[in-house]
Amino acid sequence: MIKNMVPVTKLIATFAFSFWALVMHTTIPLIILVAAELLILAVCGNLQRNSKAVGSLAVFAVFLGFVQLLGGGSVESAYVTGLRMMAMTVVFIILLTTTRLQDLTAAMVTQIKIPYEYAFMFTAALRFVPDFIAESKAVQEAQACRGLSVKGNVFKRMINYMSVIQPLMLKSLSRSETMALSLELRGFGSQQRHSFMSNVQPNAMDYGLIGGMILISAVVIYLRIHGIV
Amino acid sequence: MLEMKNVNFDYGNGVPILKEVNLTIGEGEFIGLGGRNGCGKTTVTRLLMGLEKPVQGDILKDGKSIIKQDASIRSRFIGYVFQRPERQMFRPTVAQEIAYGPQQLGMTKKETGEAVAEAMEAAGLQKLAYAYPPNLNRGEKQRVAIASALAMHTQYLILDEPTSGQDSTEKEKLMMLLTKLNDAGLTILLITHDMDILAQYCKRVIVMGHQTKYFDGTPQKLFTECDELMDLGLTRPQSVTLSMAVAGMKYCKSMAEFQDEMIKRLGGNA
Description:
By secondary structure, chain A is an all-alpha fold. Chain A is 75% helix and 0% strand. Chain A has 8 helices and no strands. Chain A has helices spanning 7-23, 27-43, 51-70, 75-98, 101-110, 116-144, 154-185, 204-225. Chain B is an alpha/beta fold. Chain B has 2 domains: 2-224, P-loop containing nucleotide triphosphate hydrolases (Rossmann fold, 3-Layer(aba) Sandwich), CATH 3.40.50.300; 237-270, no CATH class. In chain B, α6 links the parallel β7 (156-160) and β8 (187-191). Chain B is globular and about 60 Å long. Chain B starts with a strand and ends in a 5-residue tail after the last helix. At the A-B interface, α6 and α7 of A face β6 and α3 of B.
């Protein structure tokens, strides 16, 4: 069902989940929210594939909780901070793993009325992340073949990592230049209107889900006013 | 000697990439590794280098397992030249770039200087010692990558399609360099789709196919006796096709050799 939803519904759902995470300020509802998001990710069949990303987010959530504690916050506020961060980021993983970037651009331009150039920049930046990670891995391998070891203390690793960063930056700059040229050669920005092949029109199910999310938002606000969540 | 023993490999999704691969790479050999796209050629070299770990089987050097050594350890005896050598270049001059490997090995300043000078001379890079590596052409970058491996006093050199995208002059210069290094005792394993290179320069050819080592022998045997060249994604070089078409002519591994043979037959001086 989630994969059949149009991008604009998923975008609204992403903002709705983030909004609920911001409104909730107790541990149990936030745990339920994070669990629901993980369940959705699992139902979509993307949990295993993204387990590393989810794991990294969990580590970062724990780190945030510690920072909150060190800053003088209570244990409850540390839990809430970490869980809130998890809730607001896992939902983006759901959005990005269930939506084609072309469809997301189409929805942003045709329905949210964001200028095409800005929508394209946003999705191009998202597309760049996995490419950048893959290139980083390739450069690390190339340097490992010349004796670079990623073992040792943090400072040694940081110094060693300099030999990865420089070729990576050069490659990224060259890639950006090639992409800019390629876009220009294909008329990027020369037309006021841009057409899309994707059909991103919401259907009845999407409208029903959007209605449901508005209703849940109202309930969450009501519960928060009464101190329940 | 490097050895792959009963090696099986997949990328964790259960789809086998390599099954029961057994191969040896003796010292001083010049081996061409061929086969279709996606047949596992690069995987074989990545396994040898330690960039991938076999699911089953062992990798040995001189009879001792090196399976637990990662790429940074194996770089002491195996040099790897990637298809895109710019991925490893990050220093401001060619000389400093080549010095990176010896420095990683903990060589002294004097030893590093000597190793760099020797490697640059062997790769014909003396004139480019102070050049900025990203500004070099592809052939020169390949030679910098080779020199980087030589400066680490490597015993084995693995090259992943080093001649792709190069003009014929650069290609020939590179192959002459590899031949010279091989004559000096360096073991070379070269991945290539270029049949002329397999025929002309390699002393032994390994062809990957059907997820395993499908052929292992001389280029002559491959191009004259193997009936499944097309199935393996290979073609017969023109020089071999022509020499086989002329009755009584010996196997010619290059067009230059075929031309000489024809001139001799016609009574001219080759």
